[in-house]
Design brief:
2 domains, globular, 12-stranded mixed beta sheet, Aminopeptidase
Amino acid sequence: MIIRDVRPEDNEKLLEIEKSSAQEGKIWLTSYRTDFFEKSRYFREGFFFVAENEGDGEIIGCAGAGFAYYSLKGEKVKGAYLYGLRTNPKFRLKVAFWLKALVKRMTDVLQDSDGVFAFSSVKTDNGRSAKITRHLGFFPERVFNIYAVPVIRNPRVKGTLVDYSPSIDELSTIFESASLKGDLVPLDLSETFFPKLLEQRRIRLMSFGSARAVMWDTTGQTDFSISKLNGGLKPLHKVLRGVSITIPAIRVPRIGQPIKSWQVIELSYDDKKDGEKLVRALHNAAWRENVHLLTFGEDSEEKRVRSLLGVLTFKLPFQIMTINRENKPLGLRKIPIWPPTL
């Protein structure tokens, strides 16, 4: 077995591994994107390694990290986000074998870097991934909730303003203001992330009254499907799916169907009624563009966003885990805004 840098020609193999290794838990998700390296292009620098079987060149597993600057205890510090840990199902019983070698290679790179800390995110009910991440020396810090909301047909909301090409300065100011309220706010999105999204016309700034939302159109980039539902979610999905077919006023995709989604990176308001109307406007826009799902996010200690979303909201809690040179928890404060590369 060898550990090597990823190569462009690995794209198809890695996509197949990602697609066949669904995330576990109450909701199993399977990726349907076409470019495995999409996320890596949003970081200023980083690395991605694969473990390869020397005999037949089969990829056993992979993982990588992207460097960026984040707010941490009121300061701007360099950190690494670890992502893309995937195991080829053919080698699932040999995880310890390749992971140990891969972790050593990643640790060497991180220690030689000028990064202050590293962090990762794991769905709280994905026991296998959580166990692996803890084994790597990461400390659980906070829980960040992702809310998935099926798109509902809503009438147009008069008075809604939509900017299809907001300025980078305006977007950066939103994140800089959020950095005063907590940790893990990315502070260099103006260099890589925002320019790419604006070039592709994938980001919008929507507002109604005192409410504001930053929306990222992720269709075609991070499409996924629900491959399995456990517990009471399975009969609930069956009922909602039936309703969506009979009364086409809500989009509930079938199991295994690729889902197109929009990611609402930021949603804020002074007057709650304004926030509710803006959410309805988001649904209206998503419905007209054949989007299935709106996703929102906030720290688990907050409920301002959740209070706007209604009954048909599915919560996906992610454990944020960190590691640093002092080998102790960072004591993260609240995460006030959704780090979009999470």
